[in-house]
Amino acid sequence: HVFTDDETARGCPACGVLATRVKECALTSPRDLCAGGEPITLLWHKRRWVCRERLCSRGSFTEQTPRSAPGCGRPGD
Ligand SMILES: [Zn+2]
User: Fold this and answer.
1) Taking Cα atoms as reference points, which of 57, 55, 59, 46 lies closest to residue 19?
2) Which tens digit of pLDDT belongs to each residue from 28-74?
3) Taking burial as the number of CB atoms within 10 A of a residue's CB, which of 15, 49, 52, 58 is the most buried?
4) Closest CA to 64 of 36, 34, 35, 26
5) Span from the CA of 24 to the centroid of ligand 1 (angstroms)
6) How far is the CA of 23 from the centre of ligand 1 (A)?
7) How many whole angstroms from 39 Cα to the centroid of ligand 1?
8) Which residue, among 27, 32, 65, has the nearest Cα to 43 in the 3D structure?
């Protein structure tokens, strides 16, 4: 189980303000991750944040990280 431990994940994609309030949590399991060519099962606790910037039209957003898995070779390659 992993959590995003990254301050920038709380940044609103619309206005850039760091959110301070969690709206809800969601459990996702990305399938495109791997470790050393081995597919891994990952439970990722994502949080949904409330953007409190009044001028922001977004309201809430799911955290996202700049890091994304580039994909991996097929097992056995
Ligand atoms: Zn915002």
Assistant:
1) 59
2) 877 666 667 677 677 888 899 999 998 999 999 998 765 544 555 55
3) 49
4) 26
5) 16
6) 14
7) 35
8) 27
